[in-house]
Design a protein that fits this description.
The protein contains twelve helices and six strands. The chain is of the alpha/beta class. Strands 4-3-5-2-1-6 form a six-stranded mixed beta sheet, sandwiched between helices. It is globular, with a radius of gyration of 19 Å.
Length: about 280
């Protein structure tokens, strides 16, 4: 993502850390839609309430917003921009998800399945690469192992929602293996080392049954858990990246649809208004 350093800093300064107070400033609860328009650039932002239920308000919103317009470009949350234009693996993933009505998949997979069935609009992942995130965390004095364990932890709420967890130790070990492969991590990690890391950093016992999304929420206060602080730092970096990507893509694509979790919108709103003008809110379901 290219941006001049002056413009980049201006955008960075407009990204705000997430808080309940910031969330309360939004006009509606997720899911909602915000339409931005400035000169000949149009951005439609679906602020999703993450779901794997095809009858949910989020899925219904995605379908209505996608079908009511033709877009030049779609940006979605689950994978990095580096995977390139309309990656085949995600189209195949969305097709597979459709076979059991997306009960184990997200609204992003549903959008790409719709897109493959209708307009086949170009799409990209909106995320920075793991390598970029790792470099940012190392710059902030985290360790590589911190990122590995956090990547595993942040997936727990979704895996619980999709019924993928049965036995704690096996689930942790299998998940660590996948995270290690994804991040090309060479250090030895295992269940006991993870438990020791979690309990020493978060000052609490690890229990999969009691684990909630709050433990990986992006908070940066004096009494925040370590896992919340790393979430905050990654989250801020991600949102800065996403907005710069939208700014860059808007030079070529004039009608952009972005589908992201609702919390990203409230953090990005001032920066989006700076680039695309004042947004018009809609609550469809």
């Amino acid at each position: 993502v290219s941006c001049t350093s002056a413009n980049s800093k201006e955008i960075d300064d407009l990204i705000r850390p997430w808080s309940k107070e910031l969330q309360a400033q939004e006009k509606y609860r997720y899911p909602f839609v915000v339409n931005y328009e400035k000169d000949d650039s149009k951005l439609t932002f679906i602020a999703a309430d993450h779901s794997n239920d095809i009858e949910s308000a989020t899925f219904k919103t995605v379908k209505k917003v996608y079908l009511e317009n033709k877009y030049d470009l779609i940006i979605i949350e689950p994978f990095a921009y580096d995977y390139g234009k309309s990656p085949k693996f995600y189209i195949e993933h969305s097709t597979k998800c459709s076979q059991d009505s997306f009960s184990r998949c997200s609204e992003a997979a549903y959008l790409i399945w719709l897109n493959d069935s209708y307009n086949k609009t170009v799409f990209y992942g909106g995320e920075p690469s793991d390598k970029d995130i790792m470099q940012e965390l190392l710059r902030l004095n985290y360790k590589k192992t911190d990122m590995l364990y956090f990547y595993f932890l942040r997936k727990i709420p979704q895996d619980k929602r999709q019924g993928k967890i049965k036995y704690q130790k096996k689930y942790v070990e299998d998940s660590l293996r996948r995270a290690k492969k994804r991040l090309k991590h060479n250090e030895d990690v295992n269940y006991n080392k993870f438990i020791s890391w979690f309990e020493s950093h978060n000052k609490m016992r690890f229990d999969l049954k009691e684990f909630t999304i709050n433990l990986v929420a992006p908070y940066d206060k004096k009494d925040s858990y370590f896992t919340q602080k790393i979430s905050h730092d990654i989250s801020m970096y991600r949102d800065k990246y996403i907005v710069k990507l939208l700014k860059e893509k808007s030079k070529r694509f004039k009608k952009i649809l972005i589908l992201y979790g609702g919390s990203h919108h409230e953090k990005q709103r001032l920066a989006l208004e700076h680039i695309f003008g004042k947004g018009k809110y809609r609550k469809l379901y």
